[in-house]
Specification:
Blueprint: E1 2-6, H1 10-21, E2 25-30, E3 45-48, H2 54-59, E4 67-70, H3 75-89, E5 93-98, E6 115-118, H4 119-131, E7 137-141, E8 148-153, E9 174-181, E10 184-186, E11 199-204, H5 210-218
Parallel strand pairs: 1-2, 1-4, 2-3, 4-5, 5-6
Antiparallel strand pairs: 7-8, 8-11, 9-10, 9-11
């Protein structure tokens, strides 16, 4: 895979090194001479130029790359690079760094961004995930589809403790992707039993009602006094 990384700061260089370690071809672009630390990522191709200029992107052969990563510390630059890459060069995949969470709403397909990565947002999610038990934490949002990856740690008083995965009445467009038990990730099957402290990684569609999902996981008693668990014999909630 051929990848162009815009921004030769610590973030851009780290991304480039990681991609090179996986045998991808990488070109790094930055307009600041001080950022040209070629020896630190010697296997990459380097270009000293302004990535917001069409001539620079042409010189970097962006039209031949599979992914462009806009990883500068300037949100305006990252948006312009993504837009030019998508509209002028038809790059299949654009990944853009969001520095200021207030600008996150702009990083979507209208600006040519396929995947927006907000470091502050991710760090906030990680903090919440580390301390929250019994609450849904949004780990990541896929901007193209609107799907979310959510995490919830089952509290001791969850009525789902001891329930088999196949018995849970999951809301529509909701998929249990993984169970993390201690340090062990588990691919969930219908026969796996949920335990106290299980970290559930759940993928949900754009229109899923998170309040309804939380009710199933933490307080699955419905308005009719049911439990939100499916009877395997009848296929009906019990």
């Amino acid at each position: 895979m051929r990848v162009v990384v815009v921004g030769a700061g610590s973030v851009g260089r780290s991304i480039a090194r990681e991609l090179l370690s996986h045998d991808h071809e990488v070109t790094i672009i930055d307009k600041q001479p001080a950022a040209m630390r070629v020896a630190q990522v010697a296997d990459a191709d380097w270009l000293l130029a302004d990535a917001c200029e069409l001539s620079t992107l042409s010189e970097a052969k962006v039209d031949e790359c599979d992914v462009i990563v806009a990883a500068t510390g300037d949100d305006k630059v990252n948006l312009v690079v993504s837009l030019l890459a998508k509209t002028e060069f038809g790059v299949p995949r654009t990944v853009a760094r969001v520095n200021n969470p207030k600008n996150e709403w702009m990083f979507d397909e209208s600006w040519g961004v396929d995947v927006a990565v907000s470091t502050p947002r991710i760090m906030t999610s990680m903090v919440e995930e580390a301390v929250a038990v019994g609450d849904l934490v949004r780990i990541f949002t896929f901007h193209q589809s609107g799907a979310d990856i959510l995490e919830l740690t089952l509290p001791p008083d969850s009525p789902l403790i001891g329930t088999r995965v196949g018995q849970v009445a999951w809301p529509q467009d909701t998929v249990l992707a993984a169970i993390v038990r201690g340090t062990q990730p588990i691919t969930p099957s219908i026969d796996d039993t949920l335990e106290v402290g299980d970290e559930l990684l759940i993928v949900t569609g754009r229109d899923v009602d998170e309040a309804a999902l939380l009710k199933v996981l933490v307080d699955p008693t419905d308005d009719d006094g049911g439990t939100g668990v499916i009877d395997e014999t009848t296929g009906l909630p019990v």
